[in-house]
Every structure is written in structure tokens, then in C-alpha cells.
Amino acid sequence: MVSKFHSSLSEALSLMLNDSDDHDVIIQVGENQNIKEFRAHSNILKARSPYFKGAFSAGWISKKDNIIEFRKPNINPTVFEMILKYIYTGEVDLTKAPGENILGLLVASDELLLEELLSHVQGYLIENQSTWIEKNFVLVLHTVFKLASCKKLQDHCLESICDDPQPFITSKDFPSLDKDILYGLLKRDDLNIEEIVAWDYLIKWGIQQTPGLGSRNNNRTKWNNKNYEALKKTLNKFIPLIRFTAISSADFFDKVRPYKAVIPYHIYEEAMEFYMKDTMPKTTTLPPRVGRSQIESNLIKPKLTRIIAGWIERKNGNNLSLNKKYKFDLLYRGSQDGINYSTCRNKCNNQGPCLVLVKHQQSSEIYGGYNPLGFMYCGNQWRNTSESFIFSFETGEDIKNMKISRVNSNYYNCAIYECNSYGFSFGNNLYMNSNSNIYFSNTGYYDDNVDNVLNPYQYTNFWPEEIEVFKITTS
């Protein structure tokens, strides 16, 4: 048996880093007013980084008094300090680091060929910095699309945008989005956006990208033929990606027709033939867009459906690559159908797998449950499944503080309770009673996290502000 003492080794190397009297490398990082020198040991750097191994072995490095002098102006000093700590000790602490530095660490890890660190940072950004990523989508996209090793983060960004494009396209940075990234987004069938909205923001992007237009010349009524030709050149490869048949005739007349001059003649004529004669286009035949997780909910944003779909596939967190596309069709909404257990039951029975969402009147928290069997008329009966779960979100758009409780493996036969006088029941942990109130309790039929899911209304009942039930279909 081999005994390992990694902690003491890490501590010793940390001391070498902090008190590097015997260093043989000076690395100057940063630029302008943000420059710092670090002292290190070439053997350790070469052992840990293929980049340094190659760089220090090359003939172009400079030495002064047998000390290697090396410059990395493209790496922030704070970021390089984290890299050195990782190289010497195998430790990195990102909990208090701002998103910009974490992204910088990702780029530096790629450049210095630190694969283990790159993988960790990429995962950390996805799991713990999703909110920051959403606020800085353009910066993140422009950064990671230059790094072939960051496909996981690329996919995460694109899927997040496809699930809920509105915050992205309305952001102040959207007009500066790289044309190849925009092309890739508009090409996707799972971009969950109304086609007229896609058109509107494509025009806005094109105006900002076109020389002679932009914010100083965005009033088309003042444009000349040269302006229209310039915009047409900018949008030339994007126009065929617009599904004109998914745009209403009124929107086409009001919002598309004024830009007739920028649309290729054959595309415009086929669109007109569709609106006038109901003849499908022959050359522009892209199918209507179908989002990966479509939902029209008053309680949760579309991006939360990816979390729920991941739970259905037994995947947790935000780093989700779904195996299927999910569609959520509204069956019942209390505010429009009336909050009544009987109405809920009548509208939701025999519809297949269902998602239930509930909101308390005095809380922003959203509670819910997944019934993979569907609701049905079958009297007072317990139904068996291993796939049901209940959950809560802190708000209708929070993707960080979600909680889930799956049916206890010892009580699969008590996962769903069917009762004609209940609207729904998840093992009598979360249920709508005959008085149409929502009840929370811990019967032991769901796992130990059930108390966290139902907090702070455990063992209470309340009249819900809203209830929504959706039928779930996949493709």
C-alpha cells in the first residue's frame, strides 16, 4: 500500500511560491498601469504546463544573470496569481472572484495548456456564474468562440439564449455581436423567438453594423438608395434565415415591407405569393422554429424549463445537454379557469405526463411537481413510479437556488395519489385538496430534501395566488 501525503507537499510548494529566493524566472504580466512581476521556478512551471515547457526550451527566451525574463502582457496580474497558485499547489478559489477574472482565467488556462484548470473553470462558470454570463453574453460569446476547447461553454450560452432570447437581444451589447455568432443563432430551429421579433432585431443589428448608418442615421425615411444598398450588403446572408411564413400578414406589411429594398428579389416575391395566394415558398423552405423547451407560463421564465427537463432526464444543475426537445402545453391556469380542484382535475385528466406549478400569495417562490404518469380518474389509489419529483425555485427566473426532492426509492408505490376530490397529489407531500387549498407535508414518501423544497410553508395550507398545469411532450 502506497501512503500519500499530498497536503504537506502542497503546503511546501506554496511556501516556495511565497518565498522564492531561489527563483530562476521573472515573469512580467499585464500592461499599461496594471503590470506586476512574479518570481517562479522554471522546473515547476515546465512540469505543470506544456506551454512553459516549450517556451523555456526555445532559443528565443532572454536571460539576465541566469534569470529567465518572460513577459505575458495579455494576462491580468490577478489572474496570473491564481494560475501560479494552481501550478504550485493544485488549488484555486473562485468563490469571490468577479466574472471578468474567471473568464480571464479560462482564456489564460487555454493559452498555457492547463487542461485540468480549464475544465474546472469552464464548469464553474456554467454552474455558478450563469447570471453573470447572461448579463455579459456578448463578451462571453466573443471570448469562448475563439477557444476550440470551450465547446461546453459555447453550447451552454447558445442553449440558454435559445431557451430565452429576450434578455440577450434587448441588451445594449447585442448590436455589437459578431456576425458569425448571429448567423449561427438565426440558423437554429430551436431559437425560441417569434419570427417578427427575430426580424426586428436583425434590422436593428444590421443598422448598427452598416457604415453610414448606426445611431446617427437610423431613420429609414431619411435614407437614400446608397444607404439601403449598404444595409442589403450587411444582411445579405442573414435574410434567407428568416422564416417569413411564420410572420403574420399584418406584421409583414407594417415591419417587413418597408425594408423591401434589402430583401433579395426572389425571397420577397415568394413571401408575397405566400401572403396573397397561400403558396409555400420554393427556395426558402426552413421549418418553423421550435424551442427546446417551450412554455407560456405566468410563473416561470422559459430558461427554467431547461432545469426541469434536465431533472426529467436525471441531470442536475445548469450545465445541461438535453437528449430531447420539450414542449409544455397549458392545460389549466387558475387565474383564467378558476382555482377549483374539480376544474383542475377535469382539464388535466388523461393528458399524459404533466408539470404542476404553484405560487403562494405572499411569496416569490415557485413550487411544483412532475407527474410522469399523468393524472386520471381512478378513485382513491396510489400509483407507482420512480420518476416523479417535487421542486421549488426561489423566483420565477432564478436558476441558482432551485431545490428538488425525488420520490423515495422505498416508496415508489406511493409516488402519486389519485383521488377524485383532489386536484393533484404528489405522495400527499404537495397536493390540492377538495377545498382547493394547497397543502404541504412530509409523509416520508419523497427523499430527505422535501423539507427544503417546501420551506417555509411546511405543514401548512394556503389559498394559491396561481396554479398552472402543463402537458409535457417530447421529440
Automatic annotation (TrEMBL):
PROSITE patterns: BTB, TLDC. CDD domains: BTB_POZ_ZBTB_KLHL-like (cd18186). Residues 298-473 form the TLDc domain. It holds the Pfam family TLD. SMART domains: BACK (SM00875), BTB (SM00225), TLDc (SM00584). Residues 23-96 form the BTB domain. Coiled coil: none annotated. This is BTB domain-containing protein.
